[in-house]
Amino acid sequence: MLRRPSLLAAATVLLVCVPTGEKDVSAAVHVTAADLASLALVALLAVDLLRGRRLGLSGPAALLFGAVTVAAAAATVTSIDPSTSLTGFVRLVQIFVLVPAAVLAALRDRTDLRLVLGAFVLAALIEGAVGALQYLTKTGASYTGEPIRAVGTFGALDVMAMSGVVSFGLLAALALGLAEPPGSWARRGGLAAAAFLAFPLAVSFSRGSWIATAVGVTALLVKADLRRALRWAGIGAAAVLVAVGGLGLGGAAVTERLDSIGSVSGGNEDHSVSDRYDLWTTARAIWADHPVTGAGPKSFQQLRDSHAPLRLSSGSDAADSTIGFTREPLLSPHNMYFLVLSEQGLVGAVAYLGFFLALLIGAARRPGSAGPAALGLLCWVLVDFLYADIGGTTTVLTSVILGVATWWALPAREPAAGEPQ
Predict the structure, then answer these.
(1) Start and end of every O-antigen ligase-related domain (predicted)?
(2) DSSP label at 253?
């Protein structure tokens, strides 16, 4: 492990597939097998650092990680409930600082990157196969009264998890396939895996994941080759039309789900969409009362009811054969940017936006074969943050992606002759 710590990073990705059972979503802390693996990676790299090895952290990366840490600490100290915010601070530092820095340090060559991307593909194939079976056999989570929603091993209380894992795997498979020589079996295998994963992604009925994947694939293909991007866009569109329209694989439900994205008024309004907009309004109202350092990590759920519009629902419906019917409380604004603004104020917003923008610009500008994968996965995360935030079993995967993006976008200088590698 000390010679190739990327194995632990890959294990972190794969361990998200381990079922955790139905969780109490209101609990302060959830620790999964993937979380433990990520912390083991942090500990391993700490040992490596004590042994005198440079961890490859560039000055700009260290500055950005430091800014995020300081912003979270300031929000915690000035929180309306510092004791509750402390657990949120620890989680934020884990997700946005410690694990990304450890992943960055673990990626020492392109073999390490292939290991991590391959783990994303394998995890996606596992979850995608389970999800496709759930849709075809009607054993998934409830959607429009039918048990057809693909959720993989994550259950109805974490309906977004499978779609995220499958999206990451699709992007990783596409990047790995395009990096191989034309006509090779590795190229064909990567592209075939990406094509297969499109189906479980479709029957996850996750509008956010569809949009984020479309943006991620576009960014990946443009980064790899603009002319190839246009060609693959046409092939992809044709494949979707054949699979969904011609073969009828979830076509009616997928079309209905797409139409619901903008339905927030009138007789056909989608309450999950209107609730999300109301949660954003709530986050803005909380920020208006705590503009500089925010109300503190994990304070949104305490202040929600006093700042929310009256029409906001008390929770979202969830159902499957295991839990029956239940209502899941709305404990966050379902938008990472509004979550940071309400809980960490302008200080946090500047720190996080600076971090994300630096990664995006660096990944887009730097040439090289690893660029498409780093840029595509990063774009998925940044777009998904427009209508989702951290939380759930697969949150640690966001950390791994941020680590990969930082490794590529903000590389450390090459060590001089005689310096430790």
Answers:
(1) 193-353
(2) H
